[in-house]
């Protein structure tokens, strides 16, 4: 938000220097980014009048002007500007004047004619960035001989304030003046705004079909305006000093009122409106050519201003080209409305637009301001363009307008937060100066929030207001007090830091991705996922909360592959969000992704690509830190993972995560040309462990038996191991798979699985008869329940 210091001082003028004023605004929480002069330095430029004008005798494009500069003598000047005319008031640089760029005016002869001075354009005086087509013409009331710098009040500064999104009430001179008045205990005196009496009774019908998004809409028909009229120089200058270029009087007035009061306005050409103005949602596929010439296709949830033939504007963002005011416009329909912040938030970015209007509406515009702004704009338009105003038509839904908000402030809570006790009358005075309604209660104050303060809702907001107006620099400085008692560490809990160290030790790098993801990416990886969509996302590709860590990791993989990083090993820890907002589950997860060669490039390294079992081994190394026997892997189907290379991860019989290879169809849809493998597991399950306990080593010999079973090809080895452990007795100390074979000697559809089993008794030597009984029980149970046969 840029504004002119002089314009602000027309509302409220504290006895402070420019820098002190900027510092005060910053200390109040409205950070000042820059303070710059409104014009470059120049000297000896005065207001002059072109008294006589004759063509140059030797040049078609030059004129010889006689200029009255107030010195008592006429000054001859040769001027080549196409718009110079007799009787004009102009800025005139006398001989010896120094213009921006250290350019000194000297006597000269142009095609043989003497010229003493220069009639200046806006760009030559540093008042315009682009080169001006002609000289700057001043109002006829400009006093001849007065210093141009004084006449234009150029000893002024542009102050740029960087407002946080919650302070939309300060996106206007009125709002900033209100803040400065509060800080300095000064009254704020803005322009007097009176209702404009209608000259005719003609109106244009207005129909609001979506009162929730547009609770208030006002419109007025103004007939017979002169769009070719010239915008007054004082308004052009105020707009320029606020960073806005003057266009035509109608647009300039709407921009001026927006800067002055904070209410965006729009004017339609009445000749291009048909039957009625309708505020409604766009119909899917409707198209609109905007004022900037861009043609867009509207989505069904976009609020538009339309007539009976189609959309005219995107509500609160930008108008359409064909209904805008042009040089042929004679009658205008002036719009002033309140659109709810959620109706505008995010809509502009969806279409690649960001306008001054959308910037204000999505932060919240005072719902009570629309009528005042319409009256102010009407009065200015009549003053500049003439015309005949009609009655102001209003369509409002009180049920959908923001209601009065009330909250309380406790004196004890205020003292606790500030570390300082403030007198009750000072607190009440601060709140009242801010425009809040205040009523003393037994514990503090009951406060009614004004319509322009969208950011005040809870007690902490009131504490912030009191603190910043009282002055942050007046609050006591205290060192925080901490209780540094040691907390007991649960030995059965695996710290997250240990899990991170383990992943790093396995060659992974930690990634930190956004909790927001692109909806199409989440849809590709988790088509059935339900997670909240953001009402006002950072960008369109970060508009839904992630239901899994997979989308962020896949996006990070794409980023790395696009930068010639062929070997990627990433892991991430963070929350995923599942369910609607009212029943939202936030689940901490640990996920990982691998891609590329198994080992880093090197002459002795393995160049083969990483596979499912490499990733499974990395995951099992994490499981071994806690309670490895509580985990199981079983075949499953996941929409993002390759069938047959995908497993459900179970913890104590409940689903805790997934592991597998990215599905080829998903990989193709994402434009990936290489395989990628992923897993994600719930952190609460990973961090559960058990307290280690010492078991005395047996002094007696081990007994080992190797068993080779013929089983169905699809049978998981884990099922066979579970059966063996159930029948092997309490002295089984180890069971593991050491060979899988398919080929000659094994029937089709089967595989040979070789397992090593080791028994050891803690206090005696086991005999062959005991071991044989256990082996027979294992073989019988495996045959009965799994169809397994011992291989001959």
From TrEMBL:
Q: One GO term of the cellular component aspect?
A: phenylalanine-tRNA ligase complex
Where are the bilayer-spanning segments?
none
- Could you provide one GO biological process annotation from this protein's UniProt record? phenylalanyl-tRNA aminoacylation
InterPro entries reported in the protein's UniProt record: aa-tRNA-synth_II/BPL/LPL (IPR045864), B3/B4_tRNA-bd (IPR005146), DNA-bd_dom_put_sf (IPR009061), Fdx_antiC-bd (IPR005121), Fdx_antiC-bd_sf (IPR036690), NA-bd_OB-fold (IPR012340), Phe-tRNA-ligase_IIc_bsu (IPR045060), Phe-tRNA-ligase_IIc_bsu_bact (IPR004532)
- Keyword Ubl conjugation belongs to the record: no
Does this entry carry the keyword RNA-binding?
yes
SUPFAM superfamilies registered for this protein in UniProt = Anticodon-binding domain of PheRS, Class II aaRS and biotin synthetases, Nucleic acid-binding proteins, PheT/TilS domain, Putative DNA-binding domain
Which one of the record's GO molecular function terms can you name?
magnesium ion binding
Principal subcellular localisation of the protein: cytoplasm
Please list the cofactors this protein needs.
Mg(2+)
Instruction: Relay the cofactor remark from the entry.
Output: Binds 2 magnesium ions per tetramer.
- Please list the residue ranges annotated as the B5 domain: 402-477
Q: What HAMAP family does this protein map onto?
A: Phe_tRNA_synth_beta1
Protein name, per record: Phenylalanine--tRNA ligase beta subunit
Q: Which organism is it from?
A: Halomonas aestuarii
């Amino acid at each position: 938000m840029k504004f002119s210091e002089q314009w602000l001082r027309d509302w409220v003028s504290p006895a402070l220097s420019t820098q002190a004023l900027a510092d005060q605004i910053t200390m109040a929480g409205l950070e000042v980014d820059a303070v710059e002069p409104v014009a470059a330095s120049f000297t000896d430029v005065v207001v002059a009048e072109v008294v006589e004008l004759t063509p140059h005798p030797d040049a078609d494009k030059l004129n010889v002007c006689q200029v009255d500069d107030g010195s008592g003598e006429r000054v001859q000047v040769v001027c080549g500007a196409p718009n110079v005319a007799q009787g004009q008031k102009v800025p005139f640089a006398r001989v010896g004047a120094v213009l921006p760029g250290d350019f000194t005016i000297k006597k000269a002869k142009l095609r043989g004619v003497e010229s003493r001075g220069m009639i200046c354009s806006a760009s030559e005086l540093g008042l315009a960035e682009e080169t001006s087509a002609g000289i700057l013409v001043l109002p006829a009331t400009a006093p001849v001989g007065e210093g141009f710098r004084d006449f234009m009040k150029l000893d002024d500064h542009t102050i740029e304030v960087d407002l946080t999104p919650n302070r939309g009430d300060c996106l206007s001179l009125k709002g900033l003046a209100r803040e400065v008045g509060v800080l300095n205990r000064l009254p704020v005196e803005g322009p007097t705004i009176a209702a404009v009496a209608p000259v005719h009774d003609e109106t244009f019908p207005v129909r609001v079909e979506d009162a929730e998004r547009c609770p208030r809409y006002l419109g007025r028909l103004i007939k017979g305006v002169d769009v070719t009229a010239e915008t007054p120089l004082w308004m052009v200058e105020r707009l320029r000093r606020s960073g806005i270029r003057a266009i035509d009087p109608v647009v300039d007035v709407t921009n001026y009122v927006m800067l002055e009061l904070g209410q965006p306005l729009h004017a339609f050409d009445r000749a291009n409106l048909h039957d009625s103005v309708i505020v409604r949602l766009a119909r899917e596929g409707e198209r609109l050519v905007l004022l900037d010439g861009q043609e867009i296709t509207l989505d069904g949830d976009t609020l538009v201003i339309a007539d009976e033939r189609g959309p005219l504007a995107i509500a609160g963002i930008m108008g359409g080209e064909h209904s805008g005011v042009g040089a042929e416009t004679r009658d205008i329909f002036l719009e002033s409305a309140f659109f709810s912040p959620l109706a505008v938030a995010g809509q502009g970015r969806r279409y690649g637009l960001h306008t001054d209007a959308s910037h204000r509406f999505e932060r919240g515009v005072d719902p009570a301001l629309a009528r005042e702004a319409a009256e102010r704009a009407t009065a200015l338009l009549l003053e500049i363009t003439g015309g005949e105003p009609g009655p102001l038509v209003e369509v409002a839904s009180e049920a959908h307008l923001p209601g009065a908000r009330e909250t309380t402030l406790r004196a004890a809570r205020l003292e606790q937060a500030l570390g300082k006790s403030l007198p009750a009358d000072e607190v009440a005075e601060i709140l009242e100066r801010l425009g809040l309604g205040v009523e003393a209660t037994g514990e503090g104050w009951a406060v009614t929030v004004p319509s322009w303060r969208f950011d005040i809702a809870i007690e902490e907001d009131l504490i912030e207001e009191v603190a910043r107006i009282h002055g942050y620099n007046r609050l006591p400085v205290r060192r925080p007090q901490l209780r540094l008692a040691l907390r007991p560490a649960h030995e059965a809990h695996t710290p997250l830091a240990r899990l991170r160290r383990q992943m790093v030790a396995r060659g992974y790098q930690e990634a930190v991705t956004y909790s927001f993801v692109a909806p199409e990416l989440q849809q590709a990886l988790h088509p059935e996922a339900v997670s909240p969509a953001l009402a006002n996302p950072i960008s369109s590709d970060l508009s839904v909360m992630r239901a899994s860590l997979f989308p962020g990791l896949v996006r990070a993989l794409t980023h790395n592959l696009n930068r010639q990083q062929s070997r990627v090993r990433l892991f991430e820890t963070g929350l995923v969000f599942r369910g609607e907002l009212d029943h939202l589950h936030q689940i901490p997860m640990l996920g990982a992704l691998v891609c590329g060669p198994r080992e880093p490039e090197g002459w002795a390294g393995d160049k083969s690509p990483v596979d499912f079992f490499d990733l499974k081994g990395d995951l099992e190394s994490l499981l071994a830190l806690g309670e490895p026997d509580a985990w199981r892997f079983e075949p499953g189907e996941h929409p993002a993972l390759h069938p047959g290379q995908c497993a459900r991860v179970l913890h104590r019989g409940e689903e805790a995560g997934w592991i597998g290879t990215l599905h080829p169809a998903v990989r193709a849809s994402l434009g990936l040309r290489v395989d990628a493998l992923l897993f994600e597991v719930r952190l609460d399950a990973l961090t559960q462990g058990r307290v280690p306990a010492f078991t005395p080593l047996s002094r007696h010999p081990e007994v080992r038996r190797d068993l080779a079973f013929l089983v169905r090809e699809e049978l998981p080895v884990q099922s066979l191991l579970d059966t063996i452990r159930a029948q092997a007795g309490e002295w089984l100390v180890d069971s593991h798979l050491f060979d899988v074979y398919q080929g000659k000697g094994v029937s089709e559809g089967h595989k040979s699985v070789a397992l090593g089993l080791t028994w050891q008794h803690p206090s005696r030597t086991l005999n062959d008869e005991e071991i044989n009984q256990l082996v027979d029980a294992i073989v019988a149970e495996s045959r009965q329940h799994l169809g397994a046969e011992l291989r001959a």
